[in-house]
Amino acid sequence: MPLLIAALLALSAALIVLYPLLGLVREPTAPALAPASPVSDAAEREQLARQALREVEFDYTLGNLETGDYEALRERYETRALSALKTRYQREQELDALIERQLDTLRQGESQRAAAPVARPQASATTTAPSVAKPAAPRPSRPSAERARPASASNASVRARRTAKRKES
User: What gap in Å lies between CA 141 and CA 147, rounded to an integer?
Assistant: First the structure.
């Protein structure tokens, strides 16, 4: 019986050690995400190139790279990072231009609506008595920006009063 238990323990230990080597480990599948935009793709490429530059710099500092290899790798990764940065910048400029065009379209629509005359109802011809205008009721006024205290000023005065109360006690 002890021999059987020892064999099972040895077999389970061997499986635990060999399982990753047999290629039976499944890689976790990434959830279906929204398709990456060109801007995020360029930003990711830029980050990867920057990380590679840091690694090359680190290897050179440790002495793992010769000067010639370091310069070649550095040049390659700098070129990649700059091209990714340029691509991202161009894409952002295109998006900014698109946003500006849409804002201009909205502004033009608003200005056309504001310039359009408002149709007012005509007085009917059957009314013969002159209409007497009633005085309009005063509308409640909103505090203007000049009269309203900013929140920071009121907070400061509350703090000052609290501090004064604490000192008195």
Answer: 12
Total of domains in the chain = 1
What span, in angstroms and rounded, lies between the C-alpha atoms of 59 and 53? 10
> Cα separation of 22 and 11, whole Å?
15
The answer to whether residue 2 is domain-embedded is: no
10 pLDDT above the threshold of 70: yes
45's tokens? 């490429």
User: By CB neighbour count within 10 A (0-12 exposed, 13-18 middle, 19+ buried), where does 52 fall?
Assistant: middle
Q: Is residue 1 included in any domain, yes or no? A: no
57-106, pLDDT tens digit by residue?
Answer: 999 999 998 999 999 999 999 998 888 889 888 988 999 999 999 999 99
User: Per the domain annotation, does 134 fall within a domain?
Assistant: no
Instruction: Give the range of the structural domain holding residue 91, as residue numbers without chain letter.
Output: 36-113
Structural domain contains residue 63:
yes
